[in-house]
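Hi P.,

Sorry for the delay on this. The queue was packed all week, but I finally got your sequence through. Input first:
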Amino acid sequence: MSQRVFQIAAGYEDCNDCNDLREDMIFKMCAGRLHQSDNDLASQPTMSRLENTVTKTDLLRLGECLVDVFVNSYSKALSFRPKVNSAGRILEQNKGINRKVIYLKLNRKTNSE
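Then the structure:
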């Protein structure tokens, strides 16, 4: 998996280049392998199988995980109350983060496809 991430970061967006890059010393080091003695990295057919095994359920779970990480990155809960001035006028509406709304939007998108 790390091989694929580093290849995308280096500008190789499709799997066609995996065969040419599987012996590359830099990519092997990035993937945590010894550049001279360890086995080669994954081939193009292996990467294609990896990318084609992802289901809608997997994507939904990944989205939920990303939402959880984002929400839990805040040290305290966001306020859902609007900010008001001394006269009682609403200055700014803070919507906060509503995890259920985000999950529903994720679920709706995956079900519609």
